[in-house]
Amino acid sequence: MIGELDWVPAETRPDLLAEPVRTAPPQRAMVAEIDPELADTAAFCEHYKVPLGASANCVIVAAKRGGEVRMAACMVLATHRADINGAVRRHLGARKASFAPMAEATRLTGMEYGGITPIGLPKDWPVLVDEAVAAAPEVVIGSGLRRSKLLVPGAALAGLDSAEVIALGRPVA
């Protein structure tokens, strides 16, 4: 297991999963309770001794073209930054792409900011999974709540119904 956390099978602790996540946890998903004040990636990884390369972030993107807005999720390792205005924008066929406003992201996902995860997102949202995330044996991701984290195989994220594996991350300088 990764880090200094008490991981248990996710199905045994539905109280640690946001409502949309409860209906769709991947097989072999583990969950651990954390201090919600330490949910942000850097603080979480430092406190719980989780390598940044074993943690993946989910960012919600609003892609615009011709007056229409299309939402998508992007999964990148914490050591990388999603190329929103390059790879993501081109992949979605958008004229402009940007991070979705916090209030809109939480309202549309039914999840807490700082805990948003690709599991349980609206079915029509593409989930763009960076190749490095898909190849990871296990990654720590959000659970939909700030007070817990999920541990899942990268392949489980790549196998989500709306997932598309692409090169979308670039190392943080």
TrEMBL record:
GO molecular function, one term: aminoacyl-tRNA ligase activity
Superkingdom, natural source: Bacteria
InterPro entries for this protein: YbaK/aa-tRNA-synt-asso_dom_sf, YbaK/aa-tRNA-synth-assoc-dom
Aminoacyl-tRNA synthetase is among the record's keywords: yes
Key words, A-Z: Aminoacyl-tRNA synthetase, Ligase
Keyword Disulfide bond: no
Domain YbaK/aminoacyl-tRNA synthetase-associated stretches: 36-158
Name of this protein: YbaK/prolyl-tRNA synthetase associated region
